[in-house]
Amino acid sequence: MESMIKLKNVNKYFTEHKAVNNISIDVMQGEFLTLLGPSGCGKTTTLRMIAGFEEPTSGQILLDGVDVSFKHPYERDVNTVFQNYALFPNMNIFNNIAFGLKIKKLPKKEIEDKVTKALSLVQLDGYKDRYPSQLSGGQKQRIAIARAVVNSPKVLLLDEPLGALDLKLRKQMQFELKHLQRRLGITFIYVTHDQEEALTMSDRIAVMNQGEIEQIGTPDDIYDRPKTKFVADFIGETNLFEGVVKEHSNHKIKVSLEDEQDIEIIDDPSNLSKLKHGDKIYITIRPERMKLSYNTEKEKNTLEGKVKERIFVGSINKTVVILSNGKEVIVNEPAVNTLKLNGYDEEVCINWEFEDGVVIS
Ligand SMILES: Nc1ncnc2c1ncn2[C@@H]1O[C@H](COP(=O)(O)OP(=O)(O)O)[C@@H](O)[C@H]1O
Ligand SMILES: [Mg+2]
User: Fold this and answer.
1) 0.85 exceeded by the pTM?
2) Counting ligands in written order, which one lies closest to the CA of residue 45?
């Protein structure tokens, strides 16, 4: 299948500063792709190049098979939704949404139909005569979205569109946006620094760091199989261990952790075959993959430690355990199914399945 947006080895320098470093991405028709990364990693610059507000220093951007790298924004069938809404304050909602259609000189009746439909899509039927100042932040953002989809662009670009909203409204809008995207079938490229937002909404996530893409994959992929330390650390909460490969077979390795018991990892040969005896590696294990007990289990990994702290977070118990080498490990267990503790400083075992450790090179 032909991709809707294709970035080929795209670079962007601002004088000496390299903001985007050799990015290649294929976004499929109808896909919801998120660029995720910390502030300053190059997300907005990448989006602005796709929109046509910046030119790449080198590389190519294709929209539906056509090279648009140096075309003006209005020559691309792409719309952008910004965090700050960018509505025209002196125009009512109808005229805000109709603006682009009027420039295109569409017949009046058609404009009216399209605006009415767009308002209904964002559940603001009946708001057309209001002015932006008479709307709440969430409503303004809905109007900005209605304006962006009213002429059915091939691609919608969204730069932290929910960033200015409070948490509850943001969660609600995440679902609405995702639903809207499914219904319209428009390709979305969404920018956020919020990993939870990215995991909730995206078909695929491109994790960016210092102008580069560290990993592209489905939310499951990115969460369960991080390829780099940066990705493991940035997405969700994790326990990172450093170790040395001690024994090695096709689908299983034994790893010695400094001053701790050996642990084992079972994985596909494709992921383990690159490793050699004596290699120094990192291993990540998600806190929710671990369980506390008072026992060493034969067919699982076990580390022993002392309970430092336990806090109740919503439906989970988060327990911090200190190993004898001083390292702190976080264990998240469902509150309904947690080891009852007799007190702090108690000696406990942390157990997890051999399959639940992920090797990071
Ligand atoms: N117009 C510009 N001139 C100079 N440097 C810029 C410009 N725009 C962005 N940058 C720099 O490029 C880097 C990436 O910025 P940006 O794409 O805005 O990051 P993000 O959206 O991920 O926070 C940052 O270091 C930023 O300071
Ligand atoms: Mg930005």
Assistant:
1) yes
2) 1
